[in-house]
Automatic annotation (TrEMBL):
This is Ribosomal RNA-processing protein 7-domain-containing protein. The lineage of its organism: Eukaryota, Fungi, Dikarya, Ascomycota, Pezizomycotina. It comes from the Eukaryota.
Length: 311
């Protein structure tokens, strides 16, 4: 196996997993850390670490306690789990509102706050008190500065003896909800919310849905006369279809004008009499320039006078 470049090498960070009532064996788990180097760079890459093989019961308090024991408190800012990025978020967008999303005007701050509250109320409550991640998941930890991220890597390299390994979950029992039977009981209870909660959520959902549908219909009416990407306005039974986006319409208009200009240029010399007239105009222009050049040469000779060579 070829060795990875120094910038891509992982540093193993061993942690001690304490025994549980259901599994009374202490285990050692290995996290793998390296500098974060995503395909699309961001401004925080220099002060963040990519972490592979995170434990399935990971939470932000777990990692905060872990790095606080390694490099001290106040240097760890937060963590983003890759599994959370891949989870799609439910949308309340009607189909027409989704197509016309690029045309929306920016609302005032108070309107945006109200809209955010309505959309939050339209979400069903979560049925899990704590998320469990897949085995071998990854995350990106953000630190206060680049120096703190480097200290975390150095601290991980120095861990050689098992007695010095950080204990996973130490000091976070009061900050996170417990797993096991308590976790499953809570899930079963949250899976059956009361009728009043479901009714309130559905009411909020349809308020958001109807508002976005109304906005999309008003916008479609204003943009109905704009052409699509080919420069045409589609007419269907019951009215014209929803238009293209503004930028697409402008591009379509520009393309249509360019096509008309090109077609006009191609048709300029189509007939025989047009070709004859064009040749005559070129000849006339050439004779005119020739006469102007003769006058310039004559004027230069008169200005210089008669040339007399020295004897």
């Amino acid at each position: 196996m070829s060795q990875l470049p120094a910038s891509e090498e992982f540093v193993a960070l061993p942690i001690s997993i304490p025994s549980l009532p259901s599994y009374r064996v202490q285990a050692t788990h290995y996290l793998y850390l390296r500098r974060n180097a995503p395909r699309i760079p961001t401004a925080d890459d220099s002060r963040s670490l990519y972490i592979a093989n995170v434990p399935c019961d990971s939470t932000e308090p777990h990692f905060r306690a872990l790095f606080s024991s390694l490099i001290g408190a106040g240097r760890f800012e937060g963590i983003t789990f890759e599994q959370n990025k891949k989870t799609p978020k439910a949308s309340h967008e009607p189909a027409q509102a989704t197509r016309l999303a690029g045309h929306r005007k920016r609302k005032r701050d108070e309107d945006e706050t109200k809209i955010a509250k309505d959309e939050a109320a339209a979400e069903l409550p979560s049925t899990w008190t704590r998320q469990v991640y897949e085995s071998g998941s990854c995350a990106v930890a953000l630190f206060a500065d680049e120096k703190s991220a480097e200290h975390a890597l150095k601290a991980a390299r120095k861990l050689k003896k098992p007695k010095n390994y950080p204990v996973w979950g130490e000091g976070v029992k009061d900050k996170v909800s417990a797993l096991g039977s308590h976790w499953l009981k809570a899930h079963n209870k949250l899976s059956y919310p009361g009728n009043d909660i479901v009714q309130a959520t559905m009411d909020a959902y349809f308020i958001v849905f109807n508002r976005k549908e109304k906005e999309a219909a008003q916008l479609a009416m204003r943009l109905r006369n704009e052409p699509d990407e080919d420069g045409f306005v589609t007419v269907t039974r019951g009215g014209r279809a929803a238009p293209a986006r503004r930028n697409e319409a402008e591009e379509a208009k520009q393309k249509m004008l360019e096509r008309e200009k090109k077609k006009k240029d191609e048709m300029a010399d189509f007939y025989r009499f047009q070709q004859r007239e064009k040749r005559k105009a070129e000849q006339t222009e050439m004779l005119k320039r020739f006469e102007e050049d003769k006058q310039k040469v004559r004027a230069m000779k008169e200005k210089r006078g008669k040339f007399r060579p020295e004897t």
